[in-house]
């Protein structure tokens, strides 16, 4: 392989180096409340930020670690490129491998975000059509609640190449994982209706809007029984938010952002690709010098850019290990507290959660009072802006169309998140804001476009 202007060979491709084993988890005394506040002191203190789900959060110590990497590059770029960059990324990949229980570091690639990971997976599906391995009309299945950007990628890569996309219609509110399993089976049947093959199933681990934990292990198993060619789990919210054991889940591909619930700077994600001859034709959509050297190596150099977010993974692990129980402890406490806060809000507003607590992650959907008059997606955006501007509450809102005949239907659901920096007062401010709007007989119709 040739480097930007040299003939450096990647240590992994020429077999010179082995990835270093992750250091043992440090069992230090737990981080204190004031240290947590100081780690997130760059957050705008005037805002009740109960939306970790959208963009995540990054503590001061990681921002500093990232700046040190950036300076190492800027100080002597050539030396950094030839001596440090690839070894650093390999070390990050090994940490991720160990976190997600993958067999081999070659199964773990680091990419910018879940959107890029989806492009890697869907691009090779498109090639299946254009190179004649798939028949026109062969199917890709995805959830109706798949993330908007992933839906667009399906349009760009699958539909455009001649595939048919079948959506799994999921109920919301949802009361059990069996409802999801039933709908998933139905969609697979629809996919096979005309004797066509299902080439791919895209399954979210935690849907974005509305947010629900999907029984991925069960759905992957069904895919295997039903002879679905490939299964891709979109777990943009995965690591730090739900349990991630890629062997237990059993999908061919699994991606998770690290910048959402794993305290990494924007942006960094991993894409796990199970080792298999069938899945060897995987490439980064940005082609550079490493093309053909395997996805993980290709992804570690996609041209000159800032790779610092990929290099801080070991520092992030050090950060999470300052908390009792490490990332597992953080995840468990976030889940318990967000459910507690969700129940407090639902009780105050006389509404319900969008799903049972065991189907919530570190995010919970809560019904908003019907009298707010939420009648469209546009209304949810207007209300969100109003909550930000008037009450300094940052929270996304979901529109659910009413079913025929429903009386006083709950048409708006707020998605609250909990992360280590949140306080009960953040949720109380949201509670009081909605109660004030209800008391003032506010409706969304009163907000200008
Ligand atoms: C389920 C899901 N998939 C994909 C994405 C895209 O993530 P990113 O913007 O980091 O690529 C998101 C973002 O929220 C998401 O929730």
From TrEMBL:
Point to the regions of Basic and acidic residues compositional bias: 1-15
Q: Which domain of life is it from?
A: Eukaryota
Every Aminotransferase class V domain range = 86-279
What is this protein's record name?
Aminotransferase class V domain-containing protein
Q: Where is this region: Disordered?
A: 1-35
Q: Which InterPro entries match?
A: Aminotrans_V_dom, PyrdxlP-dep_Trfase, PyrdxlP-dep_Trfase_major
Q: Which UniProt keywords apply?
A: Pyridoxal phosphate
Q: Does the keyword Cell wall biogenesis/degradation apply?
A: no
Question: Lineage, please?
Answer: Eukaryota, Viridiplantae, Streptophyta, Embryophyta, Tracheophyta
């Amino acid at each position: 392989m040739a480097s930007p202007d040299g003939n450096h060979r990647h240590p992994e491709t020429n077999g010179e180096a082995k990835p270093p084993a992750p250091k043992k988890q440090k069992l230090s005394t737990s981080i204190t409340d004031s240290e947590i506040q100081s780690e997130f002191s760059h957050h705008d203190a005037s805002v009740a930020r109960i939306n970790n789900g959208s963009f995540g959060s990054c503590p001061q110590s990681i921002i500093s670690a990232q700046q040190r990497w950036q300076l190492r590059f800027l100080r002597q770029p050539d030396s950094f490129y030839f001596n440090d960059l690839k070894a650093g990324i390999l070390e990050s990949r090994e940490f991720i491998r160990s976190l997600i229980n993958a067999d081999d570091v070659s199964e773990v690639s680091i990419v910018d975000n879940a959107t890029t990971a989806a492009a890697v997976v869907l691009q090779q599906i498109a090639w299946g059509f254009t190179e004649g391995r798939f028949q026109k009309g062969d199917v890709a299945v995805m959830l109706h609640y798949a993330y908007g950007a992933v839906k667009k990628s399906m349009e760009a890569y699958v539909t455009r190449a001649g595939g048919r996309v079948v959506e799994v219609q999921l109920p919301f509110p949802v009361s059990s994982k069996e409802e999801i399993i039933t709908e998933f089976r139905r969609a697979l049947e629809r996919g096979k209706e005309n004797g066509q093959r299902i080439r791919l199933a895209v399954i979210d681990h935690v849907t974005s809007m509305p947010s629900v934990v999907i029984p991925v292990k069960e759905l992957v198993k069904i895919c295997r029984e039903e002879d679905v060619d490939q299964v891709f789990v979109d777990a943009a919210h995965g690591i730090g938010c739900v349990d991630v054991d890629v062997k237990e889940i059993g999908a061919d591909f699994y991606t998770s952002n690290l910048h959402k619930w794993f305290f990494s700077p924007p942006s960094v994600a991993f894409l796990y690709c199970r080792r298999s001859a069938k899945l060897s034709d995987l490439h980064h959509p940005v082609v550079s010098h490493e093309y053909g050297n395997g996805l993980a190596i290709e992804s570690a150099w996609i041209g000159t850019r800032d790779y610092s977010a990929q290099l801080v993974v070991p520092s992030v692990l050090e950060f999470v290990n300052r908390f009792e129980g490490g990332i597992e402890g953080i995840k468990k406490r976030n889940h318990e507290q967000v459910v507690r806060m969700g129940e407090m809000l639902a009780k105050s507003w006389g509404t319900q959660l969008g799903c049972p607590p065991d189907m919530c992650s570190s995010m919970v959907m809560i019904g908003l009072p019907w009298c707010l008059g939420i009648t469209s997606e546009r209304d949810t955006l207007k209300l969100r802006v109003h909550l930000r501007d008037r009450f300094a509450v940052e929270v996304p809102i979901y529109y659910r169309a009413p079913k025929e005949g429903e009386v006083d239907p709950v048409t708006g659901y707020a998605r609250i998140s909990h992360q280590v920096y949140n306080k009960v007062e953040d949720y109380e401010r949201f509670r009081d804001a909605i109660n004030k709007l209800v008391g003032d007989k506010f409706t969304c119709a009163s907000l200008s476009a």
